[in-house]
Amino acid sequence: MPVARPHIEPRLVPSADSVVVKEIYLSLQGESSHAGLLCAFIRLTGCHLRCTYCDSEFAFHGGKRRKNAEILEEVKSLRTPRVEITGGEPLLQPGVYPLMQSLLDGGYTVLLETSGAIDVRLVPPDVHKIVDMKTPSSGESSRNDLRNFASMNARDELKFVIGSREDYEWSKALITEHRLAEKPFALLFSTVFDKLHPRELAEWTVDDRLPVRFQLQMHKYLWDPNARGV
């Protein structure tokens, strides 16, 4: 079981008015129920996991510390009502919590992409949380924080990235064990790009009649899967 962490109110942390940003850009949302919609992306630096299929290793280091107010101004210039905060693992930075609230206060639809290894209970409830479940092929499945199941609401989505039949069976068993189909949040299945053909996962899902949304990482088919800022 995960070790309990002390509750620290983000606004009391000295660096809560800023975050270290790797990049900010405009693109189409590539996955989740928001796929295909215009979206501004704020990618934060740093991650405590090292998943085998990670597609954003460039965000582990570097970047620039920026004030949240400055970030809001840049997002405003991109002229889209939808913003996703991603990483790395954005919840490692205390300033991300007031940043999300500021974006909500500005009238934006705010999405959060997070690893699933940190409890999302402090995330503002109006944020659309997209929470990963690390499957066995990630090498990090022991880091999943199952408290997230109780911290997610009907706006949220639990994402399984599947690279093998073992990952699929593990995911199916977790859905059954924790009765995830009865939870208010959606369940998403997608493949590890270039590791498992999407047709295989689609057929398994249909055969087992799983209550999940099958999805593709649209951006990896539209653009170079190793490209930045897309």
From TrEMBL:
It comes from the Bacteria. Keywords: 4Fe-4S, Iron, Iron-sulfur, Lyase, Magnesium, Metal-binding, Queuosine biosynthesis, S-adenosyl-L-methionine. It is an enzyme of class 4 (lyase). PROSITE patterns: RADICAL_SAM. One of its GO terms (molecular function) is magnesium ion binding. [4Fe-4S] cluster binds at residues 47, 51, 54. InterPro entries: 7-CO-7-deazaguanine_synth-like (IPR024924), Aldolase_TIM (IPR013785), rSAM (IPR007197), rSAM_sf (IPR058240). Pathway: Purine metabolism; 7-cyano-7-deazaguanine biosynthesis. GO terms for biological process: tRNA queuosine(34) biosynthetic process. Binds 1 S-adenosyl-L-methionine per subunit. S-adenosyl-L-methionine binds at residues 53-55, 88. Its cofactor is S-adenosyl-L-methionine; [4Fe-4S] cluster; Mg(2+). It catalyses: 6-carboxy-5,6,7,8-tetrahydropterin + H(+) = 7-carboxy-7-carbaguanine + NH4(+). Substrate binds at residues 28-30, 43, 86. Pfam families: Radical_SAM (PF04055). Residues 34-225 form the Radical SAM core domain. Mg(2+) binds at residue 56. Its EC number is 4.3.99.3. Catalyzes the complex heterocyclic radical-mediated conversion of 6-carboxy-5,6,7,8-tetrahydropterin (CPH4) to 7-carboxy-7-deazaguanine (CDG), a step common to the biosynthetic pathways of all 7-deazapurine-containing compounds. Homodimer. Belongs to the radical SAM superfamily. 7-carboxy-7-deazaguanine synthase family. This is 7-carboxy-7-deazaguanine synthase. It comes from Myxococcus stipitatus (strain DSM 14675 / JCM 12634 / Mx s8).
